[in-house]
């Protein structure tokens, strides 16, 4: 799926993005030593006085989480799936949904239906919507233990929804970003930080590759093999995620059609993350760039390699962000 270039970024974001591209290019083009990246960025934990770029407490230190008592486990667990698109729309989302909460889903709404079934099979409730007005009140969002952005695109939130989402996260809410959640709200720095200080830049051709589980102690990766086959678009990122716990990467050497995207990002060399987690501005955020193909959400692994591993990763990521399981440790 081809993308159009994203809008002009802020001065800070542009500076960070330029540095990330230079770092990634080193491994592919042999840039001078001044541009060489660290193999795996160090997790430094909570920024006690606030992150210098995003102005919030974020990182892997639980001290960045604010427990305001908004979520009572005795009431059970429930998530909200938000899949509104204001730009290119992934085929696995099917046609745009009607207004309101829980509009009818067709068989073509594969990803949304898969997440609903995931909740049914694992004992948590799932609501879904593409109506931005349903996100306009933090009191509405606080009914949910986690909000899942499922391949949203471009400016999918209005001012009221932006404010509501930020208040929800600050109140201890959980956020899960799947696939093109990284192609959303490009000009909102707070959201970029929520994604781990990262955004979608471009991608090469959708193709098979090998996912490497780089942290097998986290709840979301528990039980996954060290290496597993999967097919995706393998997003290139600018800026590069920082102050996060990296969970999985793709081995770029297994991408036979290359990693360079339509804007000629050279990839990320020997460390190309595809899943990570962090505490952010009081809440929990679990992220993955994976999830392009509809079969990844529905196949039993016999026809689409890695589907079962992907589904396990997403399920456990959602449950950890929602507080059902330990988060990011």
Automatic annotation (TrEMBL):
* Domain of life per record: Bacteria
Matches recorded under Pfam families = ThuA
- Supply the alphabetized keyword list: Signal
Q: Which residues form the signal peptide?
A: 1-35
> Which residue range or ranges hold the ThuA-like domain?
108-300
Which InterPro entries does the entry mention?
A: Class_I_gatase-like, ThuA-like
Q: Does the keyword Flavoprotein apply?
A: no
Quote the protein name from its UniProt record: ThuA domain-containing protein
């Amino acid at each position: 799926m081809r993308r159009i270039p994203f809008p002009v970024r802020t001065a800070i974001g542009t500076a960070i993005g330029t540095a990330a591209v230079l770092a990634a290019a080193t491994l592919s083009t042999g840039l001078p030593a001044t541009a060489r990246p660290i193999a795996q960025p160090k997790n430094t934990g909570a920024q006690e006085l606030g992150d210098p770029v995003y102005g919030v407490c974020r990182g892997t230190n639980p001290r960045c989480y604010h427990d305001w008592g908004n979520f009572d486990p005795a009431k059970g667990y429930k998530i909200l799936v938000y899949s509104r698109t204001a730009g290119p729309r992934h085929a696995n989302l099917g046609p745009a949904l009607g207004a309101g909460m829980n509009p009818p889903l067709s068989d073509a709404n594969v990803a949304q239906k898969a997440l609903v079934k995931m909740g049914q099979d694992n004992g948590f409730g799932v609501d879904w919507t593409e109506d931005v007005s349903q996100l306009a009140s933090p009191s509405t969002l606080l009914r949910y233990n986690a909000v899942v952005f499922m391949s949203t695109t471009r400016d999918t939130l209005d001012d009221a929804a932006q404010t509501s989402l930020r208040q929800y996260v600050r109140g201890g809410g959980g956020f899960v970003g799947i696939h093109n959640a990284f192609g959303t709200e490009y000009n909102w720095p707070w959201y970029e930080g929520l994604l781990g200080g990262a955004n979608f830049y471009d991608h090469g051709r959708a193709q098979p590759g090998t996912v490497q589980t780089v942290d097998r102690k986290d709840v979301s990766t528990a039980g996954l093999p060290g290496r597993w086959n999967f097919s995706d678009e393998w997003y290139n990122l600018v800026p590069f995620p920082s102050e996060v716990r990296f969970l999985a990467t793709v081995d770029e050497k297994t991408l036979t059609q290359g990693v360079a995207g339509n804007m000629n990002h050279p990839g990320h060399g020997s460390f190309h993350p595809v899943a990570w987690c962090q505490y952010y501005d009081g809440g929990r955020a679990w992220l993955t760039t994976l999830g392009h193909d509809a079969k990844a959400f529905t196949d039993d692994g016999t026809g689409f390699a890695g589907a079962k591993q992907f589904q396990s990763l997403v399920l456990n990521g959602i449950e950890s962000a929602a507080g059902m399981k330990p988060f990011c440790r």
